[in-house]
Amino acid sequence: MNYKKGLILVNAFSKLKSAMHQPVRLKDELKVLGIECDIKPCSIETAMIISGSSTSFLKDYDFIIYLDKDKYTSALLEKTGKRLFNSHEAILTCDDKMMTHIALSDKGIKMPDTIPGLLCYNKDASLQEVMKRIEMIEQRLGYPCIIKECYGSLGSGVFRAENRDELLLNMEKVKCKEHLFQKMINSSEGKDARVIVIGGKVACSMKRISDTDFRSNIELGGRAEVFDLPPSFKEISEKVADILKLDYCGIDLLFGESGEPVVCEVNSNAFFGGMESVTGFNVAGAYARHIKEIIYETKVC
Ligand SMILES: Nc1ncnc2c1ncn2[C@@H]1O[C@H](COP(=O)(O)OP(=O)(O)O)[C@@H](O)[C@H]1O
Ligand SMILES: [Mg+2]
Asked: Does the keyword Phosphoprotein apply (predicted)?
């Protein structure tokens, strides 16, 4: 048997408990399958790939589990020919909520109507300049509407506006950041489904409910329950993961007016600690099995 070894790369700065837990669980589950891994932060060593000067630190590794979202490092790593889980392109598309929306927009995937925010370089620019655009947002999306930072996570960059004053207030807040406007799916207020897809198949799912916020994120006080996924939710989740070529992801699905699934966002680096404790499903183990299957069937450098 030709033994393989992996490198798990994590963000250099993050001290989030869930982010620390993820690599350790994956390392342990891969070890059970006979695959050794090292866990390292994306710091000094990955800087050496710049200008292709040295990739020698990668020579011991057959694949990389990339738990960061630093797009420059993932692009450089993939240029060395190593297999990344997830791929650079998949991470890039999912990290930006507007790019995810565009990638899925002509594929028959139901999503809330969405309008991109305009790029603004100047914090003193007046929103009066784009009043026609604001009127269009009001006509197409109505109130309440959602304003989102394209690179937000854990619910912190998602806002709701009930009227023009609130819309302008939120627009001012996100003016110089990438952002989007979205129709509020009222039937899903304070609840959604989180679905984990691994290797193209739904692995497990849970429902997230908040009694105090329209956002169901656990980090904002939401709670999670086991959720028996209806077939339409399963089908759309697997289709999304396939279109975006994701080895692993966590998809947020809203509940449409007739209970149908509406894709809210796709997380390429979804934390799985909460999912494992709520469902009892071994997410890290399933991901480890997928990785093993790929690296032993593909020729890796
Ligand atoms: N268009 C929408 N309609 C209704 N609720 C929404 C909408 N968009 C987001 N939400 C709620 O806000 C939460 C956070 O939004 P999401 O796009 O998943 O951003 P984040 O990356 O911060 O989790 C969702 O889980 C959902 O509960
Ligand atoms: Mg989310």
From this structure: no
Answer yes or no: is pLDDT of 47 > 80.
Answer: no
Question: Which ligand has its closest atom nearest to the C-alpha of 222?
Answer: 1
Q: Measured in angstroms, how far is the CA atom of residue 270 from the centroid of ligand 2? A: 9
- Domains of the chain are 5-85 (3.40.50.20), 93-110+187-288 (3.30.470.20), 114-184 (3.30.1490.20)
SS3 content of the chain, % helix, strand, coil (to 5): 40, 25, 35
Q: Is 265 in the pocket of ligand 1 (CB under 6 A)?
A: yes
290, 248 contact by CB (below 8 A): yes
Ligand nearest, relative to CA of residue 154: 1
Ligand 2 centroid distance, CA of 156 (Å): 10
Q: What is the CA radius of gyration of the chain?
A: 20
Instruction: Convert the pLDDT of each residue in 123-166 to its tens digit.
Output: 999 999 999 999 999 999 999 999 999 999 999 999 999 999 99
Q: What is the pLDDT of residues 197-246, one digit of tens each?
A: 999 999 999 999 999 999 999 999 999 999 999 999 999 999 999 999 99
Ligand 2 centroid to 128 CA: how many Å?
31
Q: Give distance in angstroms: CA of 244 to centre of ligand 2.
A: 17
The residue whose CA is least distant from atom 18 of ligand 1 is 265
